[in-house]
Every structure is written in structure tokens, then in C-alpha cells.
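Record pair follows.
FIRST:
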Amino acid sequence: MSTGYFLPIGLFLLALLLLAILVLRSAPASAGPVVGEDAPAFDLLDQNSQRQRLEDYRGQWLVLYFYPKDDTPGCTAEACQFRDEYYRIKALGAVVMGVSLDDLASHKAFAAKYHLPFSLLADGEKKFAAAYGVLSGFGPIKFARRQSFIIDPQGRIARHYARVSPRQHAGEILRDLQALQKQSVKTGH
């Protein structure tokens, strides 16, 4: 059998894959909060069925990182980076929470498998991801875009990361938290 027949099919599939990636990257997300605005409130369960609400974290710095799917390569790398930097971030008086559209059982298994010491919030109704402008998808397939927010102790968005490198993001958050806290001390906020 000639390989000439398979070449056009392979090129067609490659073109189809590239088109799907392009569409997914350009899928519109609703507008989310901007730096300086109040963070959208949330009331969600974490992997331990514990209710987590924004109002419970007033007076603390909060890192919310949205990610597409539990136990996938990029999401695992990002979660493990936050795990590895968790106690340094916590020492700055900050709380880390991951958010995806996965259910509680998926979060529980993911957190247990990688020994994640922070909450993973289940946004099955997709309302929280939509409020933060990170809900995306293609047709019926929906996911949270990989974006993060630092929320200040007054409940305002202090920093928004629209582009995130899973393997370097936790370190970036740590550096920015330190800078934001120094700036906050200087300005008295």
C-alpha cells in the first residue's frame, strides 16, 4: 500500500487540530474583574466538602488560580508548583485556592494523588468562572482558562494573570505577593 494516500489524511487531521486550537484560544470569555475592582463573591465547596466563601478571607491575601482540568499535564505541573511553594506563600499571610469545573470527587482524587495542601473549588455550575471572565470552551465543552488573581485583604483584585506558565507561576505569585505587600505597607492599605 502506498503512503501517498495517508499523507493527505495526515495533513487534513493536522490542519483540523490546528483549527480547533485556534478556535479554542479565541473562544470569547466574558469580561471579568479588573485590578482595583471588588473581587466577585463565591460560595463553593472544596474537595473536602467544606464551604469556601470570599467573605471568610477578608483581612487576608487570597490567590485564586483557575485551571482547565484535574490530573492533566499542565494542570498537574501548576498544582505541584503551588504545593511546593505553599508554605512560603502561607508565610506571607496568603491563602491559595485552585478552581476548575471538575466535580468534588475529581478534586478529592487529584488533591490526594499529589498531596495538595490547599483547597480545590468545584465550580460545576460554571458561575464562578464566568464571573471572573475565565469560562471558555467550544460548543458544549466548557472549561476554565488558566488564569489567576491575587485578591487583597480588602477583597479587591490586586493582580490578574491572563497568561500563565504552569511551571513558573507559583514563583511569580510569590514574588508579586511580596511586592504587593511592601507596596501596601508604604501606602497604608
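SECOND:
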Amino acid sequence: MVRFTDIKLATPSLKSNLASLKGPTHTMLSNSDIKRESNQAKILFDASDPENDDTGSGGFIYPQTPYLQPKSLDITHFTVSADEKNVFFKLQFDNLSNPGWHPEYGFQLTYIAVAIDKDNKPHSGQTIVGMNSNFVLKINDAFEQIVFVGGGVRLVDAKGKIIAEHIPVSGDEKNPLGNVLTKTIEFSLPVKHIGKANEQWRYTVLVGCQDDHGGAGIGEFRSVSSEAGEWIGGGKLNPNTPNVYDVISP
């Protein structure tokens, strides 16, 4: 019979340099970082987009879940402004949805990519948007940086490296990223990460349905198929068509 007092357990040895114990190598932005306000900010880009054009290549329909409200993928206005320390983004929609699963987001199920062409040079930058968008920009619109907005905000460079990221946490619902009452998504990014914006920067804004695969986080563009289901959009005739419902082009 073995007595428990005779059992000797190994002492765990933890190494401080284990990758699983390290935090992200990129900058993490707080709610106060991405919700700055400024009376000195100058509008650098202002674009309106028609209502009722959230049909992708034509004929796209929304996933059938009741949690996604009609017109939540229909962007109607986009502005960029800046002061000496921050660049401010405002996206106006015809509607926004908030199922209430993550009140710290202020909205859900809408996904956005803002591709930024800083140098206005053909073949300079990246044209592949990624994140299951299946979208490739024209060579004249290639980006040096791109901002993904879903369950947070992520700034990425042309090589796919994350520069800075905001992940909402409990308490951020006091001043969330999105607002279903005003139907807007607004955020700021520090100049030290995104660069000093000017009127020469050009933007491509892509809007689709967000898919976080049930795990929260930034997510990606939700797939669209020929037939709509509860959590998949429909109306795609060509499988190579982008999973994007609405676009603002430069």
C-alpha cells in the first residue's frame, strides 16, 4: 500500500522567456487612447456614400439572424480629421446592431477595413486586404497601412505586421467604439503609430459582416455564399467575389 506521504511530486520549473507567457509585441491602446477628442482637428477627408447600396457586387443579402439589423452594413458617410497628436475616424451608417453580447463594443456584427494609401504611388504598398475579405485593391490604391474595425481596432502595415491594437474591456461601455443611437463608429489613433495625416492620403473603406467565430476579438469578414443561412450571407453568384457589402473608393 502506497502512502500519500511517500509520494514526491516534481517541482515545476517555469522559464520567463516562454512565448506563451509573453504579451503582444505591438502596442496595446486603451479606451482613452482611441476615444480622444479635439477642437483643433482639421478635416482632411470627407466622403458621402449612397444609401441602400449594401448589396456587394449586386444582389447580396444579409445573414438571416435577427441579431443583425437591416442596413447595418450600409455606410453613408466617412470622415478623417487630425491634429498634432491624433488622427480621428468617423463612420456613419444607415443603421447599426448591438445584440448586447459585448456592451463594451457598443455595436457588433459590422466589420470594416480602412486601407490607407499614403504615397499615392502605383505598385507601392499592398493590394491584398485579407481577413477573409477576398478583396484586392487596384494597384493605384495600394495601402501602406490598413485599419480593421470589429471587436476592437487594429492598425496593420503593408507587410501584415500589427502596429497597434485596441481590445475593448469591461468599463469601455461608458464611451464605446460604436453607438447604435447615433449609428456611428468613431475612434482616434495616435500620430506616433499611424503617422501624421495630410490631405494627400487616400482611403478605401470596405464594409461587411463580422465573424469572430464565437470567440470575440477583432474578427474578420464573414463569408457570403449563394444561399443565405442564419450566419452566412447569400446572393454570391461567383465564389471569387469579395465578401464585402459596401465600398467607399478613393
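COMMENT: The CA atoms of residues 92 and 182 lie 8 Å apart.
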